[in-house]
Amino acid sequence: MTNAQRTPSGWMLLFLAWFLATGATLGSLFLSEIVGVPVCSLCWYQRIAMYPLALILAMALFPYDPKVVRYAAVLNAIGWLIALYQVLLVAGIIPEDLQPCVQGIPCSRTYFSLFGFLNIPLMALLTFTVIGLLLYYVKRMEST
């Protein structure tokens, strides 16, 4: 398989990652600014990791630049770890002594959920996971 044949598939995976990052960015803005869901400290840290992904991945699409994976993967990993921490915090697995949001909006409280179980930290964790998998496959396709 030549590079010319691999590029469209890698581009498509990168496009899907950008689409997810952009959807998560717009969704978080909609929930906080339109619906009025309060934003806790951990949610802000996750936004700091997610919002640049929407811009960085878009810039890597035109022209197609698979080297973006090394920068995007770092941001994605940071966001994934913060989202995992918050999911464990909401589930009550992490003790209250280790909670960073003791003043203002508590990070362990659920303000919005879909289907009764899909809360915002879990949605963020799933989004970071899928974006990470897509970036992994882009890197894998380009290295072979």
What this model shows, in words?
- By secondary structure, the chain is an all-alpha fold.
- The chain contains four helices and two strands, in the order H-H-H-E-E-H.
- It has helices at 3-35, 41-61, 68-91, 120-143, and strands spanning 113-114, 118-119.
- A two-stranded antiparallel sheet has the order 1-2.
- The mean pLDDT is 88.
Short description:
The chain is mostly helical and 144 residues long. The protein contains 4 helices and 2 strands.
Give the key terms.
144 residues; mainly alpha; two-stranded antiparallel sheet; 4 helices; elongated
Topology:
Blueprint lengths: L2 H33 L5 H21 L6 H24 L21 E2 L3 E2 H24 L1
Antiparallel strand pairs: 1-2
Helix pairs in contact: 1-2, 1-4, 2-3, 3-4
* Relative strand content: under 5%
Q: Could you tell me the number of beta strands?
A: 2
- The structural class is mainly alpha
List low-confidence stretches. Answer: none
- Overall mean pLDDT stands at 88
